[in-house]
Write a structure and sequence with these properties.
Layout: H1 3-28, H2 32-44, H3 48-60, E1 68-70, E2 79-80, E3 88-89, E4 94-97, E5 100-103, H4 105-113, H5 120-142, E6 147-150, E7 154-158, H6 162-182, E8 195-200, H7 203-214, E9 225-228, E10 234-238, H8 242-258, H9 265-280, H10 289-299, H11 302-310, H12 319-335, H13 339-346, H14 356-363, H15 367-374
Parallel strand pairs: 7-8, 8-10
Antiparallel strand pairs: 1-6, 2-3, 4-5, 6-7, 9-10
Length: 395
């Protein structure tokens, strides 16, 4: 073999190794200096750089003390045991929708609470057992590339590298604590119950999963995450690097913390967007403030405002989706300037009237007039919430 051909083969092998090593670095979710140094080493140091990356990632994959990850070989349990109650038949209580297992959650809840009074910690432990069992069955249905990681405050079922799953679990713990402080008097996380984060490979898998809760007919507004409050509360996101997932986690965990209040959609989303911004900063803007103001003035009509109060405008697939979230954000930001009064409003707002009565009684404001003032629209007749015009849609 000629020296030229040998050199060409070595070059191709080096290129393949470097591309694979670079992909491994991207999948870990590393950020900043470490990511830059590892990537640079791959391309600057022939062969040695790829080997160093492999060694580094293998060492990073070792579970940290106090954390556990469910190995690939761990079987999904068939039964659960808890003191004082009969065993729970997991397999017998599984229900399959679109080949995705869901547990009979009322049955699990009844089992966890037992026949008599049980300590809250014991109930939470039993519920965590059941949810963990469900996640292992779901893991088996989604594929062998999925792994269950158990952190101090959460379960994470995902295709993430072990080091990324651990970092994500730590972020969930930190975010839970920060939301609890930011939304003191509003937020509530069940004591000792672990949050559940489901990270799915791509948008197709994501929408296939959420369709079992929201139906498969019609179009979906694009989203990178969703809080599911049916049966077992959990939040679902599309896989990405950790920096991309974090804002979605902050947003969806806010929904989780507020779920006990059954808020109107606009208030729930406005709080989630503003909390996300407090924790992670504002995302890159698609429009200037002046452009957004102009879009708001052109879009909103009395009929569309009723969609906003009913919550249906948040599911639109046109500009109405973006403008609904933006309007909720600025309305909540405006109303929250007196935080004590705003907290009282949030904890008394009712979904059935989009919080209209609570706004008058607690804040002495009319919601329709408030929106009109924010958008500089004088003629805002018919903009106040009118449940009779919602056609049965939930707020």
């Amino acid at each position: 073999m000629s020296p030229v051909l040998i050199g060409l083969v070595l070059l191709v092998v080096l290129l393949v190794l470097n591309v694979q090593a670079t992909r491994q670095i991207v999948r870990t979710g590393l950020q900043g200096f470490r990511k830059t140094m590892l990537t640079g080493g791959v391309w600057v140091l022939p062969f040695l750089g790829a080997w160093l990356v492999k060694i580094h990632l293998q060492s990073a994959a070792v579970p940290a003390p106090g954390e556990s990850g469910a190995g690939e070989a761990e079987p999904a349990p068939e039964h659960l045991e808890a003191p004082g109650v009969a065993s729970f038949d997991v397999r017998g209580h599984l229900q399959n929708t679109q080949n995705l297992p869901q547990l009979d959650w009322p049955a699990l809840d009844a089992w966890a609470h037992g026949a008599g009074d049980r300590a809250p910690a014991a109930v939470a432990d039993a519920l965590n057992q059941g949810r963990r069992a469900w996640l292992l069955h779901l893991r088996d249905a989604l594929g062998t590339h999925m792994h269950l990681h158990e952190g101090a405050d959460c379960f994470i079922l995902s295709p993430l590298e072990p080091s990324v799953a651990r970092a994500t679990a730590r972020y969930v713990t930190t975010t839970l604590q920060r939301i609890d402080r930011l939304l003191a008097g509003m937020a509530h996380f069940p004591v000792a119950e672990k949050s559940i984060l489901l990270v799915l490979d791509d948008e197709d898998t994501y929408y296939h999963y959420v369709a079992q809760f929201y139906g498969s007919d019609g179009e979906y507004a694009r989203s990178g995450g969703m809080f599911i409050h049916f049966g077992c509360p959990h939040f679902v996101v599309v896989a990405a690097d950790l920096a991309a997932i974090e804002p979605v986690i902050a947003h969806e965990m806010t929904h989780s913390a507020l779920a006990h209040l059954h808020l109107p959609t606009w208030l729930d989303e406005g709080l989630a967007v503003n909390t996300e911004r407090r924790l992670k900063g504002a995302p890159p803007a698609q429009h200037t403030p002046a452009q957004l103001h102009h879009l708001h003035q052109r879009f909103w009509t009395p009929e569309r405002m009723q969609e906003f109060w009913a919550g249906t405008s948040f599911q639109r697939t046109d500009d109405g989706n973006l403008l609904s979230y933006e309007l909720a954000r600025i309305l909540v930001d405006h109303m929250a300037r007196d935080w004590a009064a705003f907290t009282a409003f949030v904890t008394t707002a009712q979904r059935r009237d989009a919080g209209a009565q609570a706004a008058v009684e607690v804040l002495s404001v009319d919601l329709g007039s408030s929106v009109g003032a924010l958008l500089d629209i004088v003629d805002n007749e018919g903009w106040a919430p009118d449940p009779a015009r919602w056609g049965g849609a939930a707020a």
